[in-house]
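We emphasize that the prediction below concerns an isolated chain of 284 residues; any contacts that depend on oligomerization or on bound cofactors are therefore not represented. The input was used exactly as deposited, without trimming of termini.
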Amino acid sequence: MSKILTIPNSLDEINKTSNLADGFIIGIKDMSVNVNFYIDINSLDTLNSIPKDIFISLNKNMNNSDLKKVEEILIKLNDYNIKGVLFYDLGVLNIYKRLNLKYDLVFAQEHATTNYNTINFYNDLGVRYSYLSSNITLDEIKTIKANTKSLLMVNLFGYLPMFVSKRHIVKNYLEYFNLKDNSKVNYIEKEGKTYPIIDNSVGTQTFSNDILNGIKASIELDLEYIILNSFNIEESKFISVLKMFKSVDKSNVDEYYNNINNMFDNVSDGFLNTKTIYRVKKND
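Result of the prediction step, given as a C-alpha cell string:
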C-alpha cells in the first residue's frame, strides 16, 4: 500500500497530522513553488523535529543568480535526515551530480512527467523518484508503473497546480489600479469557474477550480507515495480527509468517496478517468 505524503500549510499542521501522514513535502523560502509551507535556509533545524519522510521542494525554475544558493542548500540538506529533493530545473540535477549526497532526487516537472520514457531517461541519470503529472489518467499511471524502475508519487487530493509565472501578475494588477489587498490567496474568475491564485516572492501560481478527490484511485495504485495537498483547505476538513485516505479499503471506499464529495462544493475526479483533449477553437 502506498505511503501518504501531505503538502502542509504550517508546522502546526505537521504536528497535528504526524500520526496520520507518512511524510511531508516542505518548501525552501524563495526557492519553491506550489507548496504551502516554507522554511528559511537558516532554519533547517526545524526538520529535526519531524520524525517522518521529508521531501524538500526546490522546484522553482531557477535563475542563474540562484545557482550558488542552490548548491549551498543541497550541501546543507545533506546534514539532515531527508528522503529527497524535488526539482524542476536541470541546474539542480547538474549540481547534485557533482556532489556526493546521501538523499535522492525527485523529477518533478509537473507537466512533463507524463510517460515512462521520460521518467526512465532521468532514472538513468540517477534520479530515483518521479512526481507524476496531475494531467494523466489512472490507466496511464498504471502503464508508467509497469514500465519503470523509478519510485513514483502522485497527487490524489486537493487543488492542483495549473501554471506558474515568474511575473507578479496579481501584485502588478493591484499596483496598476492603485488597489490595496493583503490577501494570501486571490481568485480569478473565468468562464464560470474560480481559480485560486497566489503571488509571492517567486512569482504567481494558479491552481485548479476543483478539488481533486482521488480516494478511489488510492486503493488501485501501488506507488511509493500518494500526495494530499492541504492548500486552501480548512484544516479540520483536511484532517478528516487524511483520516479517510489512511483507513480506506475496498469495503469503505465508496462511502469515503461520497463523504469527501459532500464536504466540498467543488470536487472532481480530475483527469484520472478522463483523457486531456484540446481542440482548436474555430473563429466564426
